[in-house]
Write a structure and sequence with these properties.
- The protein has one domain.
- The protein has 4 helices and no strands.
- The longest helix is centred in the middle third of the chain and has 31 residues.
- The radius of gyration is 23 Å and the shape is elongated.
- The protein starts with a helix and ends with a helix.
Amino acid sequence: MSTNVNKVVRWRVALALFILDVVTFVLSNATTKGKSGQKIYPGTVSNVFWVLFLIGALLLIVLGIVALFKWLRSRKPSPALLRGNWSSCGSAKLREA
């Protein structure tokens, strides 16, 4: 049961990160042009949101790669491979060489 809870939590975190990433992307585009009466440099707020968006996108990519590797490691090999029947998986030539 604990693994199901962990999966739900991981998906919720990934979903929250995705939504936050979309929001920062929209905010970075919405704040691109500064007003003429702006006291800070025009585009500074946009640059901050853009950096936050890039960090979020990088985190999503890393989480996706980690999830893919965990999924690949958790897959069980086929029974034919466990019996030593390498011809069924197409790598018989590699085993004979």
